[in-house]
Amino acid sequence: MTDQRTLAASSIVLEDPPLDFEPLPRAARQLVVFDFDWSLADQDTDRWVHEVLSPRLRIEFCRLKPQMQFTDMCAHLLAELHKEGHSRADLEGALRRMPVHPGMVRGVRELQRKHPGTEFFLLSNSNEVYIGTILPSVGLTEPPLFTEIVTNPAHWDGELLRLSRRIAPDAAEQHTCKVGCSANMCKGDELDAFRKRHESYDRIIYVGDGGNDYCPILRLGPNDVAFVRRNRGLAKRIADEGGVQCTVRYWTGAWEAEQLLGLLA
Ligand SMILES: [Mg+2]
Ligand SMILES: [Zn+2]
Predict the structure, then answer these.
(1) I need a surface site. Which of 113, 166, 187, 235 has the fewest CB within 10 A?
(2) In its keyword annotation, does this UniProt entry include Hydrolase (predicted)?
């Protein structure tokens, strides 16, 4: 067995990483929770739209990020994008060109087909419009893959995309997470709330990459599994902060995640 630190972060050249494909036990009823940006999708929606349409705003993104709440900043940059004259069609076109790896799509659809006791839940800090535009463009809505999608609300106001926080800044109940979730949403709380809305599962599998996926992974138990993307915020937090009870399996490319999903069938 390769040690955890090597599996987490030491692969600088990512083309041929250490493989982590040891079998997993079978579970009759399982929930697969997916993060969206850099997990189900092979890019980050909030950054990608500016990379495609306005490099100036992509640089502005980096400048503002330390100063503003993340969702508020993304909403502000969308207003700037609108001021620059970019239309709804421009934004939707950029989203439809965003990379989603065919291996990931194949992996989730194969698992859904082979194991009917599997449910999928999308838990993302992106937004309703980005996800609602991309999922159908890669064939993941017909038939639906996800039982539920929890993300930030967004809607079109003419040509302007208006984005707001999942938990509004003036809402009476703010989350009290101390693990570092941004004010708009605690992914751990959202996972717990989903579990309360549904029957229990024999195990939960969480597919994620970002620092904000650390909170929900801390809420998983010893029967659960995290499929963690290497060399990103989540792998670093697991290595630095520990405290994870679930099994952790690592992947770099979606073609590896496809193999890991295959272990659940
Ligand atoms: Mg992510
Ligand atoms: Zn949290």
Answers:
(1) 113
(2) yes
